[in-house]
Amino acid sequence: MEIREIISEIRECLVTTFEKIDLWFDKDEDMMQFKPLNNGWTIAQILEHIGLTNHFLLILIDKGANKALTNSAQLDLDEELKNYVFQRDKLTEVGLHQSFTWIRPAHMEPNGEKSSAEVRQQLKEQLKQCLAYLDMLKNGEGVLYKTTMSVNNLGKIDVYQYLYFLAQHGQRHLTQMVKNKAQFDGQK
Fold this sequence. Notes:
The protein has about 190 residues and is mainly α. It has a single domain (about 5-185), classed as Four Helix Bundle (Hemerythrin (Met), subunit A). Helix content is about 60%, strand content about 5%. The protein has helices spanning about 5-25, 30, 45-70, 75-80, 90-95, 115-135, 160-185; strands at about 145-150, 155-160. The protein has a two-stranded antiparallel ribbon with strand order 1-2. A hairpin with a 5-residue loop joins strand 1 and strand 2. It is elongated.
């Protein structure tokens, strides 16, 4: 698959994921605050967690994007793209709720410091950031810098894979929110 097709796929995945997440902000407040039977997070807490996680991923993405652009002056992009492998299958596993054990750092745990409106706005801004990185790296430059991602033993991944990871993380929690809603609806 050509790098432009991969970038287009990532863009579509990001937009679709963020659109689906945004719909959850319009749910009934009782549903948003419903605590599932497994003592998991409420939908409001899940949304806050997505924003927190995106915040920290975007710090890494920003650093990686800038380093990739710097590297484009020294590395042969065409040569790098010839051997490029996008870890779609392994990254897609990230989007499957409970597909593997995931112990998140404490700084990504929801703490209720932001209102629902603030979290919603944060997520809208984060999507804009993600799309801006894809525009900035539109020729494939995102493959020129990799950092280690320990989640799901992904190993060294590039900027595009980090952006896809961010979208898949959102997908993972969309499934979790659907499960919360089903439990909430079942208790009526």
